[in-house]
Design goal:
Elements (H helix, E strand, L loop, with lengths): L2 H10 L5 E7 L12 H15 L4 E10 L16 E5 L28 H4 L9 H11 L3 E5 L7 H4 L5 E4 L5 H4 L11 H5 L10 E5 L1 H6 L1 H5 L4 H8 L4 E4 L2 E4 L2
């Protein structure tokens, strides 16, 4: 099937268009504030996905979820087309969390914070496994994370039900060196390769079945992600013990 014909089918198929997007950690109304950090994360990311051939609605239905608004993504049951995680600490260091008064001291370790501290900052069962369960229930086709070594990024979630397309590394060096997000000179150190992402700490992953269904349009995109998908054509890959192949 020609790429042009496939694009027309995809654009007319409501099930393929990414419309509902949970932005976990963002503030309400961020999409109307270009100076907001949430805006600077979400909008360039969506633009990159569009250039990569993903069918992203021009007017997404954003659901900004933040503890300050008494919302907890991990305990909710809403479904989304995509989930974006912005600036959520992974539990190793909880300083500078939004909407919480925290002590300046902290301990190293994956799960060292007291229940009382976590109750005002992170879900008390804030673990990779909990994120994996919630993402599965959300039925999201795309997962995007933005953050450094002490935040929730794809290697921390390690959800094998998604096929990773771009992901920052979790090396010992990077655990102690949080480079400026938009400093492209550090892209290779953070991502392990030179890639045309809008910023270096962005992680992108997709459900394998979604990639297979949309391979033609994504491969026709103009980004390094598109070229990766095109290179995956005919190469088997495995997710949760199931084997997939993009034809």
């Amino acid at each position: 099937m020609a790429v042009e014909a496939f694009q027309k089918i995809a654009n007319n198929n409501n099930d393929e268009t990414i419309r509902s997007i949970a932005v976990v950690g963002a503030f309400k109304g961020f999409e109307n504030d270009p100076e907001c950090n949430d805006y600077k994360f979400v909008m360039p990311s969506l633009d990159y996905l569009r250039r990569s051939g993903f069918d992203i609605s021009d007017t997404p239905d954003f659901d900004a979820i933040n503890f300050e608004d008494q919302r907890n993504f991990l305990s909710e049951d809403k479904e989304y087309d995509a989930v974006m995680i912005a600036y959520i600490r992974n539990g190793r260091m909880l300083g500078h969390l939004r909407g919480a008064d925290l002590p300046s001291e902290y301990e190293e370790g994956a799960h060292v914070q007291s229940r009382g501290t976590l109750s005002t900052t992170l879900d008390e069962n804030h673990t990779p496994e909990r994120y994996q369960e919630r993402l599965a229930h959300s039925k999201a086709k795309l997962l995007l994370c933005n953050g450094g070594p002490y935040e929730v990024i794809l290697p921390w979630i390690n959800d094998q039900s998604f096929q990773t397309l771009a992901s920052p590394k979790m090396s010992d060096e990077l655990m102690y060196m949080h480079y400026r997000a938009h400093d492209a000179s550090n892209m290779e150190r953070v991502q392990g390769e030179k890639i045309d992402l809008p910023f270096q700490w962005l992680g992108i992953a997709a459900r394998p079945d979604y990639l297979i269904e949309n391979q033609a349009t994504i491969s026709a995109g103009s980004t390094d992600i598109s070229r990766k998908i095109d290179a995956m054509s005919g190469v088997p890959f495995e997710s949760l013990n199931k084997k997939y192949i993009i034809k």
